Each structure stands twice: as structure tokens, then as C-alpha cells.
């Protein structure tokens, strides 16, 4: 069998227009194969390019979506942090306000302590500042009383946002204020403890000092000192004070103490002696009735007997004497207070 290459020709006809003559090209078959191969190659390249492009676009979209998600998350974090910072800043402001309130309260407590000292007669050297502030406070109080404040809860003003630096500074100031307050409160605690002790000492001192009137009646019918004796009409020394009380009026212990003598004799009648401290004794005479026993502990203001006219007496009265180390002294400088429940 013989193979014989016979180049066949293909005729390409191009018709430009109906009125123009037809153009003919005669090309070999091989050209057609090459053209078909070129076309196929081109198509393949196009498809591969398209596939690559599609894959790249898909990756880009995925990346963009991821980026967008991250951005949203970042924005959410930023918003959350902004809110947290704002909250912290507001808390700093609140703390600074609390520090101011605490300062006022500490000042108030200092004033109370000074007032307490004044009432107890403890502080002879109360500072002018304290007195001035107390006076100012009283003045303010009286002004308030004259013109009662109108209750209002309104707050206003133009918006003026605080800068971060200002808040930081406020935070530092507040911290310093709290440190200072802490030390002031400690000082106040020490001072109040001392004052409490001083007041207690003063109270004890007052309790053991015969400052009370021995009867409700405060009419003095005979004072301490020289006088004309009511019986002999001769000059004599009156060693106590006579109170013109009525018969059976209560007689009170003028200070805390211990009954060291109860008895009756022709001069003093029914009489009681109470021993206090610091060498002080009080003596109650001419009683109608004695209501305590020898050795009893009595408190200031307790009823120890009833007014009478026993012994060397012209009419019902109480002869009251104060003795210092066994010697009669004028009771008058001691008498300052009424009975507790008066
Ligand atoms: Zn007398």
C-alpha cells in the first residue's frame, strides 16, 4: 500500500458586500489544522486565566470579609474601652466629691469636739480658729433658720467636657486628699480618746465635789462667818450655812461619798457626816429623820434625811457644813448645781 501526500486546498470565500466581487483565498488544509490548534490553545489559556482569576477573587473576598470582621471587633473593643475609661473618670469625680464631703465631716467632728470641751469646761485655750468657725457655723445656722432654704434638685450649666489630663490631675489630688484625711482621722481618734478620758475625769471630779444644794429651798437664813448668836445674842462664829427649808423637806448628799457618822446630840440634833475625797466632808444637822446608815455609800443627789429642828435650833432648817481637812470652810463657793432631776 502506498501513502501519497496530496495537499488538499481549502477555499475561503469572503463576501464584503452584495454589490462587490467575492474574495477567495485558497489555503492548504494544514493551515486549517494550525488555526484550529491555535484557537484551542487560546481557549485553554482563557479558561485557565479565568479559573485563576476566579480563585484569586474568592481569596480576596475572603480576606476582605476577615478584615471587615476584625475591624468591627476592633471598633467594638475601642467603644468598650472608651466606655470603661469614661466610667473610671466618673468614678474619680465621685471619689473627689466624697473626699470633699469627708473633709467637711471631719471639720464638723473637730467642731463637735471643741464644743464638747467647752461644755465640759476642759479647754481654757480653745483656738480662736475653732471659736471663729463655730461662731460662723452658728451664724450660718441662724441665717438658715431665718430664711429656710428652698428645696431643689436642679443641676445645669453649659457642657464643658473635662480633659483626660484634668481627670488624671483630679485623681492625683483625690488620692492626696484621702491620704491627708486618713492621717486627720487618726489624729482625731487620738484626740477624741483623750477628750473622752478628760470628760470622764471631769465628771468624776464633779461627782466627788459637793457642788449640789442640799435642799430644794435655796433661801439662806444664816451665812457662813461671824454673826450674833440667836440664843445668847453674843458675837459668835457660824461654821456653816442655814437653809430655811420646811420640816420634812428632803436633804440631799451634795456629792458622791461615804457616810462616816450618823447620830444625835444636844447641839447638832440628828446629824450625818459624809466623807468625800481630797479631805472634804459635808455635815448635815438638825434633821428630823436620818435615812442612811453609817458606812453607806451615797451618790450625789440621793436623799439622806429629812429637814427638822432637832438640837440647838429655833425652827426647822438645815445647817449645812463643808469641812476641808477637818476645818470648816464656807460652803457657798462650792454651791453651783441644782439637784439632778430639777
Ligand atoms: Zn447653822
Automatic annotation (TrEMBL):
Domain spans labelled M23ase beta-sheet core: 237-331
CDD domains, sorted: M23_peptidase
Keywords of this entry: Coiled coil, Membrane, Transmembrane, Transmembrane helix
Coiled coil location: 71-115, 178-205
InterPro entries assigned to the protein according to its UniProt record, in alphabetical order: Cell_wall_metabolism_enzyme (IPR050570), Dup_hybrid_motif (IPR011055), M23ase_b-sheet_dom (IPR016047)
Bias-annotated ranges (Polar residues): 135-150
Protein name: Peptidoglycan DD-metalloendopeptidase family protein
Organism: Paenibacillus violae
